[in-house]
Amino acid sequence: MDLQYVPGPDDQDVKILCNSIKQSNGAQTMTMTMLVAHFTVGCRSGFMCMTFYRRDGHVIELQTGSAVSRPEEACSPPHFLQHSMPFLTLV
């Protein structure tokens, strides 16, 4: 039997693009980068703040803020509260 993936009604295309880099520490260590990303999910789009932390050679942690309509609001409170946001670990 040949199995093939068939997209359902809940499937949506997701696209995330860097809009601007807000903060990055030293070019040699590159352990943290904060950026404003433009995202598109299905027919909806907006901006969000994303902070990436390099923890090890193959481990990155990520924090994402809430969706906003203007890029200048993305990394400011109450849309991005760095000390209270959960981390997503990527390996």
From TrEMBL:
Residues 11-83 form the DUF7043 domain. InterPro entries: DUF7043 (IPR055471). It holds the Pfam family DUF7043. GO terms for biological process: autophagosome-lysosome fusion. It comes from the Eukaryota. This is DUF7043 domain-containing protein.
